[in-house]
Amino acid sequence: MITFWSVLLVNWRLTREFGPFTREFGAFTREFGAFTREFGAFTREFGAFTREFPTFTRELAPYS
Asked: How distant is the alpha carbon of residue 55 from its chain centre?
């Protein structure tokens, strides 16, 4: 029969075993989130540039 103490003991063992991994994975997740935000900002800027580029090339066409 599963008792409260056996569940508590298993939970404590799992926490001891996987705690360092969980902390490392949390740090990785935070770093990856920061990278994703930076990449999103770059993508928005590049998208704005790309939308403006056809206008820019049409304006230069008479000079080519």
From this structure: 34
